Amino acid sequence: MEKHFREDTLSRKIKMSTNTWVAIGRTRPPSHSEVMPQYVHHLAPKSLPEITPATPQQKDSKQRCVKWIAVPAICSLLLFLLAGILLAYYYSSACVHGIPCGGNTGCVWESQWCDGLVDCPAGQDEAYCVRLHGSSFLVQIFSTHRKQWTTVCSHGWTAQQARTSCRDIGYSESTSVTWGLRQAHSDDGFLMVKSDPNPHVPIVQQVEFSNDCPDNTVVTLLCTDCTRGVNSSRVSKGQQASLGSWPWHVSLQLKNSHRCGGAIISPYWIVTVAHCAVMTSSPEDWSVYAGLVDPLGILFNPAHAVSLIIAHEGFDRITHKNDIALMRLTKPLDFTASSNVGPVCLPNVGLNISVPVNGWTTGYVVALSGDSPHLMEAQVTLTNAAACNSSATYNGRISKDMLCAKGVQPGSDACGVKTDSGGPVVAQSDGLWWLLGDNIWPESCSDPNKPGVYSNVTFFLDWIHHQMKKHQND
Question: Which residue ranges of the chain lie beneath pLDDT 70?
Fold first, then answer.
């Protein structure tokens, strides 16, 4: 029965399928009831490409052009701005690499220092390339190759190199140049004159490094004759100086009235104190008398005109720090004309003079009328800064640019004889007299327990030579 049911069902399906096929094949139109609603999906036709007018195309091209120009320009400006910031940092900050010129004026590479070419704005890189060392005046030149001070072999050395060296230190052509030889050995090598040096260039360009030196002889040099002076076997108590005993001491007179003392260091240059030099900025108001020891001396000694006054740029009127100055004469002094006039030696680097040491100080005793003064002398002992800065004396007011000296006997120093400011203190070593300082605190004479205070010339040695070199042709 079940079999008949399945057959019957299958036959019906076949019949229905046959009827459906026949129906589809009919030619008559279907009735409304036979039409079933259907959703027909229509594809939208592709839109035609939009035709852009010619003018917008040109505008877009211009915009691209502007971008291509603007972007590099902006990048360049940014690079320039970055470079400016770096340069500003380079010139305003301490040197990360190289050597600072000083005074916030930039830096130079180590290879540019003392190469004979000026690279710093004020020439600081070539200002201290030649020096004289110790009491023998040994010539030393800063070697860029070795980055150290090096002695100069005498092989090939001539008077021409001697004059060039003195000129590079700061001395004028009118100075008396004397050079000599000295035996020396060096494991660090030497500088030797080139086989064909150019006489018109700085001495650093006329020499080259050498491991050996024939005969092991090196050069010594005197750029001015500071070998004259008195011996030190004198009485220690303050007294009037004799004519020619201190040939470097001068009277600085302002409008024909004595104001301060000073010391001759070359035919053109006088060392004095800044608080005296700043009394007036007009050099023509000053006159210098050399070889003057009493009021009558003004009748027999000429007045020397001043062409330039240079007070230290860091001078402080209250503390007296950097109280040092230079005066340049219009015409050089003639040291051969009189034995009563001559220079004192500047203290070379490496000079072995240490406190306590005995020295001498000189100064003028000035009458209330301001007439020409008497030159006084006294023996003093230089003391260390610690003792001078104690609470019982100057209580920390003495800085490293100052020296203290007290009389060997009570009342025997320059303060004991109530002298003026600017008077030098000198000491003798190896038969020569060396300028150690200039009196800057004459007002300390009111207290006999306090020593005299002087500018420390050794501290200012580089400054002195730099000013001499900078103004040697003024």
Answer: 1-68, 86-94, 96-97, 229-238, 366-372, 409-419, 442-448
Domains: count for the chain: 2
421 included as an active-site residue: yes
From residue 269, alpha-carbon distances to 89, 200, 218, 226, 306 in Å are 39, 25, 29, 13, 10
State the chain's mean pLDDT as an integer: 81
> Of the listed 258, 275, 304, 465, which one is catalytic?
275
Six-digit token string for 201: 């260039």
User: Two tokens at 299?
Assistant: 């009748």
Which of 115, 125, 323, 420 is labelled catalytic? Answer: 323
pLDDT confidence of residue 342? 94
CATH of the domain at 187: 3.10.250.10
Question: Would you say the pTM of this structure is higher than 0.90?
Answer: no
Q: Which long-range contacts (CB under 8 A, 24 or more apart) does 315-323 make?
A: 315/274, 315/275, 315/278, 317/275, 319/397, 319/399, 320/275, 320/402, 320/440, 320/441, 320/453, 321/399, 321/401, 321/402, 322/274, 322/401, 322/460, 323/273, 323/274, 323/275, 323/440, 323/455
Q: Residue 33 domain-assigned?
A: no
Burial 238-250 (b: 16+ CB within 10 A, else e): beebeebbbbbbb
Query: What's the domain range around 465?
Result: 239-470
**Cα dihedral across residues 143, 147, 150, 153: positive or negative:** negative
pLDDT of residue 59: 53
**What is each CA distance from 181 to 26, 238, 264, in whole angstroms?**
141, 40, 27
Handedness of CA 152, 158, 161, 163 (dihedral sign): positive
pLDDT score, position 408: 72
pLDDT in tens, 266-281: 999 999 999 999 998 7
- Note whether residue 41 is domain-resident: no
Active site residue: 154, 421, 444, 455, which one? 421
